[in-house]
Amino acid sequence: MAASKILAAVVDKRTPLDGMLDAGHGNPAYRALSEADRALCRAILNATLRHLPRIDAALSSMLDTPLPEGARALQHVLTTAAAQILYLDVPSHAAVDLAVEQANRDPRNRRFAKLVNALLRRMVRERDSILEHSSEVSPVPQWFLKRLAAAYGKDEALRIAEAQLEPAPIDLTVKSNPEGWAERLKARLLPTGSLRLAAFEGSIPSLEGFSEGEWWVQDAAASIPAKLFGDLKGKRIADLCAAPGGKTAQLASMGAEVIAVEQSSNRAKRLRENLARLQLSAEVVETDLFAFAPSAPLDGILLDAPCSSTGTTRRHPDVLFTKGVSDIEKLAGLQARMVRHALTLVKTGGVVVFSNCSLDPLEGEQLIADLLKERTDVERVAIDPADWPGLQAAINADGEFRTTPAMLPAADGYAGGMDGFFACILRKR
Ligand SMILES: C[S@@+](CC[C@H](N)C(=O)[O-])C[C@H]1O[C@@H](n2cnc3c(N)ncnc32)[C@H](O)[C@@H]1O
């Protein structure tokens, strides 16, 4: 019940999923559920959104005539039931019964209850053949597949789209001794220096080293930008979009004097809490970065800018339904202004590391190419693939990092993939 309502808010109103699944302030239908039902609701929503184009295709191939325009609520009931039948390890008959009950409960949909029953029962019977044919349908919405194909070519676009069907594994960044922690946590040491946990369902805080602040959760790709600074001992660095603080923590543990700038006070609170657990220190400044004025020019800036987040669809499958091309264009414009502002805050010879978790060149390669065309006082410092063994394929011809979920093959029983990230180094001449 809650799942189909929340799905409606994502798909019809473009409401991001995270906020609605917040235990304190989330959607009332979700908050009314028990812990176990909340977990099931999250699993249903993630499976539904991850496979939505394929579920929609399967449902419409089984309907002689499309559902009427006014039956959106019914469509969401069917889609969440189909996700359970096709992609979740839950009893199919319970999913069918619940969907029929939901149709009966809503006066607008009551007349469709028999259809819901027949359609979903057929889906249970034909499950294997539906799944077999599902690969004929793009796993991501067409608008996104088109943008991926234009940027990466058709074959790579499909590999990236397929990779986003897998939930992201959990990666950790450790303060020190990655080999030792890999052994203790039975994790795989990745070429980024991150640790990847084996399939994990427990609670993160119960893992060894969490309460001692020895590590934090951070996708392998997200750990790359801070590492691009090299030696940071004694350097003054501002992290301009800092919360929840994964990169601030890296900069602080690399020995920098860090100013963490964050405009959202809720997120700044989380950043402070995270730093406290990790026993790392940074000056936290709660402000819009455009109003941030350090007392003296800085040695460096990390600008991990707000973006369309299309590189994080493995963990946020709602992104492809809440964001679109106009958001990418708008965010690219904001990032272009942010990076120009960041360049005013560093000293001559200082660097700005620019990064974000978008897969779209408009927010990465293109944005930097436009900046370099316009500014002769800024140069790009090429990242040397020889410094990044195992990640050479993620460094483009211009010396920028471009990771995608299709990179980093699975190995030794550990999942593959990493977030889509763009990162580059700019130096002020
Ligand atoms: C992609 S997240 C940053 C993630 C962070 N760097 C990390 O590694 O944990 C972007 C952050 O920038 C903040 N932000 C967005 N616009 C901002 C602005 N104009 N000034 C300061 N912070 C901003 C958002 O509130 C959000 O916390």
UniProtKB/TrEMBL annotation:
<dbReference type="InterPro" id="IPR001678">
    <property type="entry name" value="MeTrfase_RsmB-F_NOP2_dom"/>
</dbReference>
<keyword id="KW-0694">RNA-binding</keyword>
<feature type="binding site">
    <location>
        <begin position="241"/>
        <end position="247"/>
    </location>
    <ligand>
        <name>S-adenosyl-L-methionine</name>
    </ligand>
</feature>
<protein>
    <submittedName>
        <fullName>RsmB/NOP family class I SAM-dependent RNA methyltransferase</fullName>
        <ecNumber>2.1.1.-</ecNumber>
    </submittedName>
</protein>
<feature type="active site" description="Nucleophile">
    <location>
        <position position="357"/>
    </location>
</feature>
<keyword id="KW-0808">Transferase</keyword>
<dbReference type="InterPro" id="IPR049560">
    <property type="entry name" value="MeTrfase_RsmB-F_NOP2_cat"/>
</dbReference>
<keyword id="KW-0949">S-adenosyl-L-methionine</keyword>
<keyword id="KW-0489">Methyltransferase</keyword>
<dbReference type="Pfam" id="PF01029">
    <property type="entry name" value="NusB"/>
</dbReference>
<dbReference type="InterPro" id="IPR035926">
    <property type="entry name" value="NusB-like_sf"/>
</dbReference>
<dbReference type="InterPro" id="IPR006027">
    <property type="entry name" value="NusB_RsmB_TIM44"/>
</dbReference>
<dbReference type="Pfam" id="PF01189">
    <property type="entry name" value="Methyltr_RsmB-F"/>
</dbReference>
<feature type="domain" description="SAM-dependent MTase RsmB/NOP-type">
    <location>
        <begin position="146"/>
        <end position="429"/>
    </location>
</feature>
<dbReference type="GO" id="GO:0032259">
    <property type="term" value="P:methylation"/>
</dbReference>
<dbReference type="InterPro" id="IPR023267">
    <property type="entry name" value="RCMT"/>
</dbReference>
<feature type="coiled-coil region">
    <location>
        <begin position="261"/>
        <end position="288"/>
    </location>
</feature>
<dbReference type="GO" id="GO:0008168">
    <property type="term" value="F:methyltransferase activity"/>
</dbReference>
<feature type="binding site">
    <location>
        <position position="304"/>
    </location>
    <ligand>
        <name>S-adenosyl-L-methionine</name>
    </ligand>
</feature>
<feature type="binding site">
    <location>
        <position position="288"/>
    </location>
    <ligand>
        <name>S-adenosyl-L-methionine</name>
    </ligand>
</feature>
<feature type="binding site">
    <location>
        <position position="262"/>
    </location>
    <ligand>
        <name>S-adenosyl-L-methionine</name>
    </ligand>
</feature>
<keyword id="KW-0175">Coiled coil</keyword>
<dbReference type="InterPro" id="IPR029063">
    <property type="entry name" value="SAM-dependent_MTases_sf"/>
</dbReference>
<comment type="similarity">
    <text>Belongs to the class I-like SAM-binding methyltransferase superfamily. RsmB/NOP family.</text>
</comment>
